[in-house]
Amino acid sequence: MGDRLPALLKDSALTALMAAALGLFIVGFQTRDIGQGLFFDYQFVDLGIAVVTIFFGRLGLHLAAMGLKWPSFALGTVLGAVGASPLKMPSTFLHWFVVIAGVLIILRTIWPWANAALAKARHSERGRAMGQRGAKWFGAILLIAAVLLPFTPFADQKNMDLAVLILTYVMLGWGLNIVVGLAGLLDLGYVAFYAVGAYSYALLSTQFGLNFWTVLPLAGMFAATFGLLLGFPVLRLRGDYLAIVTMGFGEIIRLVLLNWVDLSNGPAGIGGIPGPTLFGAVFAETAPPGQQTFAQMMNIPFSSNQRLIYLYYIILLLALVTNFFTQRIRRLPVGRAWEALREDETACKALGINPTNTKLTAFAVGAMFAGFAGSFFAAKQRFISPESFTFIESAIILSIVVLGGMGSQIGVVLAAVLLIGLPEWFRDLGAYRMIVFGLAMVLIMVFRPRGLIAHREPSVRLHPVRAGP
Amino acid sequence: MLEVRGVATFYGAIQALHGVDLDVAKGEIVTLIGANGAGKSTLLMTVCGNPRARSGTIKLDGQDITHLPTHQIVRRGVAQVPEGRRIFPRMTVFENLQMGATLGDPAHFQHDLDRVLEMFPRLAERRDQRGGTLSGGEQQMLAIGRALMSRPRLLLLDEPSLGLAPLIVRQIFEAIRRIAREEGVTIFLVEQNAFHALRLADRGYVLVNGRVRLSGTGRELLANQEVRAAYLEGGHA
After folding, report:
1. Could you tell me if B149 and B100 are in contact, meaning their C-beta atoms sit under 8 angstroms apart?
2. Are the CB atoms for A106 and A114 separated by under 8 Å?
3. Could you tell me which chain B residue has the CA closest to the CA of A456?
4. Is B79 in CB contact (< 8 Å) with chain A?
5. Per DSSP, what are the bridge partners of residue B4?
6. Which residues contact A154 (CB under 8 A, 6 or more apart)?
7. Chain A contact set for B87 (CB, 8 A)
8. B90 to chain A nearest CA, in Å?
9. Is 3.40.50.300 the CATH classification of the domain at B2-232?
């Protein structure tokens, strides 16, 4: 290694130099308007720390790639420790930056080991059995944790809000998983059905005074109808072409909502949407005449958290229904036909499966769950406008499905926590949080190119897997 | 059982079949041989309605099926083992067989499954394995087994010997013989492996450039000078 050290140092120095050159104007100077014109803030300390980190980071990655475990491990640990130390640095982000550099080096160092160990475990009988049991238990533990969450100390307003948001995306992810993961139809306009569900509830509740539980099935039906409407013209399309048309459909729905002011109140949106009730009790401080509040019904003092917890359980229930439905339907002929259609459409026809009906049911069922989620969204927000149903929503839902591993139910949960939770938790990082978000996505794509959980669980297992000795 | 009259099929502007006449009687094994690009697979696919015949008629048990969509033709008791096998790679062997039984009566499922697994014991060993991880020969067995799960009256096979080792080819052909003789399934077999196909078949057709050039019993065609020269030189697998 001694003879290669100069080359390594040279390369690392070159990388650092390049970072310095690039960063000089981006990081080094910051313009500030102080009233009498623009002034420069100099941030050369930030730049210096970043460049030094990059130098050692590059060096560490090289060492790790050469298989020099201990030097690179030590370097990673030192970087991590420096980042985490109370050392005075100009910004919190720099602390994070240095820590992440250290963590990346350590990960790169142990990756080959971990990979080999994992591969070995995966191929042994015992490892496989443990993996399967683990997956089963993991789901159960996750479920119990989700049910108990509102009673834990974490259940403050902020966390509950986030949990409701994540669960909404889990449900949307599970719904889209039927279309994309099972039936293999790449749908980029899924948000359209979400919008249909949301506007169904918003209009029916504000105009006709229907309550949430009455509208919920109706919203699902409306959305499913739109699913069929979209399904018909795109039956012959596949892959990229299908994706483009569905994307267009999503935009059409949004534009209609934006411009059909008589129906949707256009960009101003619909406000004053009533929240969901529980056996006729409302979740508010004071009830409208003729109704009672939840607090009155239960004879407990009012707290604004009650509403949030109730919303949380509704979306948890809806999401679980989606999941249960998907798990069941995979074992039925129509679910199997979806999966077979994803695998090979020609072979499906040769087996007497009607591809038209199969695709339409997939679109309709997927849309139905988006409709449920949409009316929940409207009931939660109490105000909706076309703003909430832009293409980026479809893209996020699709990312959740793809990064989770197409067709994997638990993968969707992990990806939703990662993609929705991460940007929220890292709010402290300010503008940099999107970089962390991007980094997380890139890392998933590099290390798990087929999604977090790429394994497809057979719908039936004939020989029970033997437990380890 | 199957009656093909004057069928012409086009791919866009290119004519692949020029008025083909062909018959398959109940209980027969009929083979269609020919060189690459002669239109063998096209004829088999045309019988299945994909692509559709532009002119001519195809009748199944006296009923015109020329213009029916594929899945409806299949519902009338025609099963197809497509070229290149086309099993579902991410689904297990068992799930593949389940897919084959989509049209069948669920009450028959276990019986049909046992029958297929008895015919191809290798599939029984690999029931929980993903289709894509099987060897070529096993995939072919799976494709045939999957087609049998719908209890077809007419089985269409497109080059079942493609890319398989001679020993496996012999096993596959033996299975086809059993399906015809023991199960009474009528078989229409498209093959490049003329020697095996003609030895197995009751009758055969030779397709050249989209036209039927010769027809006769398997034995006659095997003895025919033209067939020998074109398809059998060195072809004694």
Report:
1. yes
2. no
3. B90
4. yes
5. B22, B58
6. none
7. 344, 347
8. 7
9. yes
Contact assignment for A339 to B87 by CB distance below 8 Å: no
Angstrom distance (rounded) from CA B3 to CA B25 = 8
pLDDT on residue B235: 46
Structural domain of residue A27, as residue ranges?
2-115
Number of helical (H) and strand (E) elements in chain B, helices listed first: 10, 10
Of A350, A114, A410, the residue nearest B81 (C-alpha): A350
pLDDT digits (tens, 9 = 90+) for A298-340: 778 777 788 888 999 999 999 999 999 999 999 888 999 999 9
A42 with A108, same domain: the answer is: yes
Residue A162: inside a domain: yes
Mean pLDDT rounded to a whole number for chain B: 91
Every domain of chain B and the residues it spans: 2-232
How many independent structural domains does chain A possess?
2
A281/A424 same-domain check: yes
Residue of chain B whose Cα is closest to the Cα of A340: B88
Whether B217 has its CB under 8 Å from any CB of chain A: the answer is: no
- Residue A246 tokens, joined: 């569905």
* Bond before B51 cis per omega within 30 degrees: yes
Identify whether residues A178 and A87 lie together within a single domain.
no
CB atoms within 10 A of CB B141: 27
Question: Which residues in chain A are closer than 8 Å to B70, comparing Cβ atoms?
Answer: 349-350
User: Is the CB of B109 inside 8 Å of chain A's CB atoms?
Assistant: no
pLDDT interval class at A467 (50, 70, 90): very low
- ipTM for the complex? 0.84
DSSP summary character for residue B7:
E
pLDDT for res A1: 55
Query: How far is it, in rounded angstroms, from Cα A398 to Cα B232?
Result: 55
Q: Is residue A461 part of a domain?
A: no
In total, chain B counts a number of residues equal to: 237
DSSP track, B42-98: HHHHHHTTSSPPSEEEEEETTEE-TTS-HHHHHHTTEEEE-TT----TTSBHHHHHH
